[in-house]
Amino acid sequence: MCLVGGCLKMKVLIAVSPSATTTSAASGGSPLMAFYEELGDLAVELAFLQDSVPLSQQVGDVDVIIPALSQVGADDINSAPNLKLIAQAGVGLDGVDIEAATRKNVYVTNVPYGSAVSMGELTIALMMLLSRKLNEAQANLRKGVFFLPLGSELGGKVLGLIGLGHSGKEAAKRAKSFDMTVLAVDKYHDHIHTPDVDFLGGTEQLDRVLTESDFVSLHCPLTEETRGIIGYGELCKMKPSAYLINIARAGLVQKEGCIRALKQRKIAGAGFDVFWEEPVPFDDELLQLDNVVLTPHIATSTAESRANNFAQVARNMKLVARGEKPEFCVNF
Question: Which InterPro entries does the UniProt entry name for this protein (predicted)?
Answer without folding.
Answer: D-2-hydroxyacid_DH, D-isomer_2_OHA_DH_cat_dom, D-isomer_DH_CS, D-isomer_DH_NAD-bd, NAD(P)-bd_dom_sf
